[in-house]
Amino acid sequence: MAEISDAAIDAALERGMLARELEPRAAAAHYDATSERVVVDLTNGCTFAFPPRLGQGLENATADQIAAVEVSPSGYGLHWAELDTDLSIPGLMAGLFGTRAHMARLAGRGRSPAKAAAARANGAKGGRPRKQAGI
After folding, report:
1. Pick from 95, 62, 61, 76: which is nearest to 29 by CA?
2. pTM for the whole structure
3. Average pLDDT estimate for 12-18
């Protein structure tokens, strides 16, 4: 096993200190039942909030379950022990509320005038074509 030099350790500590200053981390989090939002206070003084229904694993949670949010020791995540759900702070801030499949399901639920018009036009043609066997 190779030894790690003091210089490598010092460089890693420096990178960690820089990351602590620059990267968003959660200092505290709580559920605001009035606005129906999970509110996250960041270490840089900013506040971030999101509706829990968007978060993977939180879609069907009760207000009491959502209110049991915990900040991970690193500050990089939120954890709900009873729901066995974790969401990352960088991901949430980037608009990612779960896995790729979860995000695709969220996008598919969207409503827009264009989507409604396309559905009406498709319905006027007899609806979605049936799948052909053997194709």
Report:
1. 76
2. 0.67
3. 84
